[in-house]
Amino acid sequence: MVPPEWYLLLASGVFCIGLFGILTRSDALYFLMSVELMMNAANVNFVAFSLYYGDLTGQVFALFVIALAAAEVAIGIGIILVLYRNFGDIDVTVPTEMRW
Amino acid sequence: MSDWIAIGALAAVGLLIPIGMMTVSALLRPSVPETGKSTTYESGETPTGGTRIRFNIQYYMVALLFVVFDIETVLLFPWAVIYRPAIEAGVPMTDLLWPMLTFVGILAIGLGWAWRTGAVEWARSSRAASRKTERDINT
Amino acid sequence: MSSVAPAWSALSPALLLGLTGLALLLVDTIRPNERSNTSMAVVSALGALASLSVTVWFVIAGTGHADTGGAITLLEGAVKVDTMSLFFTAIFASVTALVVVAAHDYFHDHQRPAAFYSLTLFAATGMALLAVANSLAIVFVALEMVSLPSYALVAFLKKNRGSVEAGLKYFLIGALSSAVFLFGISLVYAATGSLIFGEVAGQIESLDTLSGVAGIGIVMIVGGVAFKTASVPFHFWAPEAYEGAPAPVSAFLSSASKAAGFVVAFRVFTEAFPLGASLAADINWVLAFGVLAAVTMTLGNFAAAVQEEVKRMLAYSSIGHAGYALIGLAALSAGSAGNEAVMGAAMAHLLVYGFMNTGAFLFVAMAERWGIGRTFEDYAGLARRAPVACTAMAVFMFSLAGLPPFAGFFSKYFLFMGAIENGFLWLAGLGAVNSVVSLYYYSRVVRAMFLDDPATPSALDAIDVRPTALYAAVVFAAVATVLLLPGFGPVIEAAEAAAAALF
């Protein structure tokens, strides 16, 4: 059996890739993918430690997270769509109607 | 450790076979360059226009509904797993069914609302409508 | 009473809110072509009020109170109804009622207002669920239940660039922080092997090598809480979202959604990561909250002082108030008897804040409905045309500033006194300094309305509409703010009892 630290390392790596994507890309769709990566990093932890502790909570919660991530993406794409209609672009740095 | 050897061997074979087939066919086949061979394959049609066209918004609406219902089955999965053992353990059928029925009922209300407010109807994009009228003028 | 009613009925405030939201969707499904703004608003207000009255009845009857058998736990301990959850549910339900009533006039010419009402009700359901959550899994699900409708609500005016931009920024920061929060939960699960608060607390003391993992997880959970409460470092969205969103939505987010963030923070950090055990594992979250509270209130108040638009000023002031309420977590010390006083005062402050801040944003909604501008100058001379509403706004402003005869003074006073008694003089002092700063910008609004002359004589001619429902909501919020003055004793008692059950 793979030792649990490795799962932690994998999850942290995936999480950091997602975070890096969010910080460096200004395209809204890349943002959604990066957030998805971060959430799935957490899922790796849940499933791995669910196995490690012999406790089903983590696995079931991972299923919930998948569903919630899908809902979040659905809302996100809706917002990106109205963003495109109003600003003609999906670059998140373009809308600056309001003073920062 | 022997498990890993097996996986590695599988990966090696999986790479070797396609690479080998491509090499052999590259060595054996005659070379006849032709323009038809290098065009984009589009189901036998002659390709027109660029690849970056804008799709009808309706695809998005349908995809969204699909995502919602596709993913919500994930939440039914744990319920389905415990269904049979629970029945065998003597849990009354109604106790087992009502959570699932409530869940599906809430989803159904949402779907009904989306339906009635026109999310599922095939909307005509203004671009498609204008193209249609142009063609009418021509004929 | 819990001996008579089935245990699930303890959840009826949340269920009522959710069922009302579903009923609105059903009505709109059956008759999609009637705009029926009025009946929608009436139904949702009735649902919120029903939920509020059930909650108040539960508080009076002592449901979940230690005297009547203690907290009611449901669903294998994942849900827990106690006095604190009822206290916060009362805040959510009252703010929801005010907001939906006000929205009736605000969306008077909107194409499809039904979606607004049901989204608001669903978000309120999520908040009520947050208040009873006793497991990190429920916390995350409920948090998303609040966040997802909120994103859509902020971007509700699809053709208004400000609203869309606000929705985008709220969504970007919200999605990022919820991912961070989730990863924090997964690390806590990795370290302790459970998601139920009580079991996490049991494990946290005996971590040795894993305490680093749990520590990072807790820091990430603090980040998620900071987003929901609009505190540093995840506060960037607040000024943008509150300014761009339709004003009733700003009222809803800045009062109810913020309180929802705090109820999670209070419960998670007292029950899942209790102070003594966390310190034993070298995880000092009190210090983290102390720094956050100090930075948040200073930044919020000083940024609010330089704003030119009233709505944006209110947004920054709402960040400042998040800083005050964070004192409720920052001024705790292990085993101290004063803990429940300071946390109870923070809860009472959130209740008072719920009314006065909602009222202030609804006044801005009324100004938007009238079509006068957004800056302080545009409000000049408003009191001559709309004396009642402006008096109400003055009450909100002075109460937000914490001037003595208003309810905001008492809650702040109890909060700072509690902090001092627990040995956190620096936090209380900083809070007092910030309150003085806040008096400057709050009084600017009052001065503009009552003392200044309008820029041009015709500037206020637009005010010939009388939005009755908005008026009613604003006046009701003002009356509640004033009535909390004599009624503050029971409120602070209930809040302290709620806090006492946590320690």
TrEMBL record, chain A:
Where's it found, cell-wise?
Membrane
Q: Write the record's keywords in alphabetical order, separated by commas.
A: Membrane, Transmembrane, Transmembrane helix, Transport
Supply one GO CC term from the record.
NADH dehydrogenase complex
- Give the source species: Halorubrum aquaticum
**GO BP term, example:** ATP synthesis coupled electron transport
Tell me the first and last residues of the signal peptide.
none
Q: Family, per the entry?
A: Belongs to the complex I subunit 4L family.
A Pfam family this chain is assigned to: Oxidored_q2
Q: Which GO terms describe its molecular function?
A: oxidoreductase activity, acting on NAD(P)H
Could you list the residue ranges that cross the membrane? 6-23, 30-54, 60-84
Q: Where does the UniProt entry say this protein principally localizes?
A: membrane
Specify whether Transport is a keyword of the entry: yes
Membrane topology type, per the record?
Multi-pass membrane protein
Q: What is this protein called?
A: NADH dehydrogenase subunit K
Q: Kindly give the Gene3D superfamilies that the UniProt entry links to this protein.
A: 1.10.287.3510
Automatic annotation (TrEMBL), chain B:
InterPro entries named among the record's database cross-references? NADH_UbQ/plastoQ_OxRdtase_su3, NDAH_ubi_oxred_su3_sf
- Sorted alphabetically, which Gene3D superfamilies does this protein's record hold? NADH:ubiquinone/plastoquinone oxidoreductase, chain 3 (1.20.58.1610)
- Could you list this entry's UniProt keywords, alphabetically sorted: Membrane, Transmembrane, Transmembrane helix, Transport
Q: Which GO terms describe its molecular function?
A: NADH dehydrogenase (ubiquinone) activity
Q: Which residues cross the membrane?
A: 6-28, 59-81, 96-115
A cellular component term, taken from the record's GO annotations = NADH dehydrogenase complex
Where does this one sit in the cell? Answer: Membrane
Which Pfam families does the record associate with it? Oxidored_q4
User: Hey, which family's this protein in?
Assistant: Belongs to the complex I subunit 3 family.
Identify this protein by name. NADH-quinone oxidoreductase subunit A
What species is this protein from?
Halorubrum aquaticum
TrEMBL record, chain C:
Query: According to the lineage, what is the superkingdom?
Result: Archaea
Any one GO MF annotation of this record: NADH dehydrogenase (ubiquinone) activity
**Listed GO cellular component terms?**
membrane
The keyword rRNA processing belongs to this UniProt entry's keyword annotation: no
Entry-linked Pfam families? Proton_antipo_M
Question: Mostly located where?
Answer: membrane
Q: Give me any GO biological process, just one.
A: ATP synthesis coupled electron transport
Protein's name according to its UniProt entry: NADH dehydrogenase subunit N
